[in-house]
């Protein structure tokens, strides 16, 4: 990052180089000693440098933002200021050139004051005006560039906040959807098996406590996500008892891998609801995690009724959308299924650890 001091040094160095250039030009054009004309040219360019600061102050007060009628007053003020300061700068530069002359040459200049000043002005007016315009153009260009970058940053921040809000909304949809299903399961056991219903209510309380402890962030550790899934499965095992078998295969090295919050629970719920529940016989669910290069692969597999692709509910839709929002093209979400053979859901995301 450029500091204010660095900007001042760069600005002064630019005008110093201009002074060196004009001193070299005078020495060659008029066959003069370089060291003799260098102080005069440095002083002249110092004056133009100070005028450049005045022009930047005018540009800051009356910025040019477009080529339209509304910007016409700013154009007039900026161009008028450049013309005025060009004339003032030429007069000052002429006086400096006179001050550095030999006494005999200075006396001749004062005897021919009008013609000398007019000749000096005609020789250097265009180049000085171009210098003033260059200062103005550079300042306006830098200001417009900085404003464009600021707007781009604000736009990116706004898009990020909107994406985060939408993601939070998708996460929020999981909870009432899951609660509705859990309470529906509890209600079906209240009269048939009160003790089982009581155990489900206790497990539901544990699950809600863990979900609240997870916090508002977009990602959690895989270990934390599996703890939430385990609490959910404890509820379902009360309902299915021996009909539900669960196997979890997650290497210890991946326990701290970062995964989206509530990413596995809707997949497991989908496997139970559409794969295991419709059948009378028992079923198995496998939850696996594996590292594949710089990606983490999560898999939820069941041996149930299969998935025909026509009943993708809130859980799967929201999971697919959240992955796209969080990881863009660095993620994938695939479903493989055969009737009466089961369903496999595989998602891949960047492998990151906390």
TrEMBL record:
Residues 261-352 form the Histidine kinase/HSP90-like ATPase domain. The chain crosses the membrane at residues 7-25, 75-101, 121-142. Residues 148-175 form a coiled coil. GO terms for cellular component: membrane. It holds the Pfam family His_kinase. It comes from the Bacteria. One of its GO terms (molecular function) is phosphorelay sensor kinase activity. Keywords: Coiled coil, Membrane, Transmembrane, Transmembrane helix. Residues 167-244 form the Signal transduction histidine kinase internal region domain. The keyword Chloroplast does not apply. PANTHER family: SENSOR HISTIDINE KINASE YPDA. This is ATPase.
């Amino acid at each position: 990052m450029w500091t204010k001091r660095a900007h001042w040094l760069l600005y002064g160095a630019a005008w110093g180089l201009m002074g060196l250039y004009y001193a070299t030009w005078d020495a060659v054009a008029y066959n003069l000693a370089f060291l003799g004309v260098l102080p005069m040219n440095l002083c002249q360019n110092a004056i133009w440098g100070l005028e450049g600061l005045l022009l930047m102050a005018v540009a800051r007060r009356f910025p040019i933002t477009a080529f339209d009628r509304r910007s016409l007053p700013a154009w007039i003020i900026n161009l008028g200021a450049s013309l005025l300061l060009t004339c003032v700068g030429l007069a000052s530069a002429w006086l400096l050139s006179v001050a550095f002359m030999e006494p005999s040459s200075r006396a001749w200049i004062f005897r021919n004051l009008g013609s000398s000043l007019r000749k000096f002005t005609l020789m250097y007016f265009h180049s000085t005006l171009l210098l003033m315009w260059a200062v103005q153009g550079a300042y306006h260009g830098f200001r417009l560039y900085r404003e464009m970058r600021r707007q781009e940053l604000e736009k990116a921040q706004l898009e990020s906040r909107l994406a985060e809000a939408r993601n939070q909304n998708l996460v929020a949809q999981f909870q009432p959807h899951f609660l509705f299903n859990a309470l529906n399961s509890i209600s079906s056991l209240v009269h048939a098996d009160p003790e089982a219903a009581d155990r489900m209510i206790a497990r539901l309380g544990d699950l809600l406590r863990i979900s609240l402890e997870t916090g508002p962030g977009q990602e959690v550790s895989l270990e934390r996500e599996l703890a939430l899934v385990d609490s959910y499965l404890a509820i379902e095992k009360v309902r299915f008892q021996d009909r539900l078998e669960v196997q979890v295969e997650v290497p210890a090295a991946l326990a701290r891998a970062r995964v989206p919050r509530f990413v596995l629970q809707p997949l497991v719920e989908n496997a139970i609801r559409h794969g295991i529940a419709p059948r009378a016989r028992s079923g198995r669910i496998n939850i696996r995690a594996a590292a594949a290069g710089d990606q983490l692969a999560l898999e939820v597999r069941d041996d149930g009724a299969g998935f025909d692709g026509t009943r993708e509910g809130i859980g799967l839709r929201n999971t697919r959308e959240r992955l796209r929002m969080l990881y863009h093209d660095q993620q994938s979400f695939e479903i493989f299924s055969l009737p009466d053979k089961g369903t496999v859901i595989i998602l891949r995301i960047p492998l990151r650890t906390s």
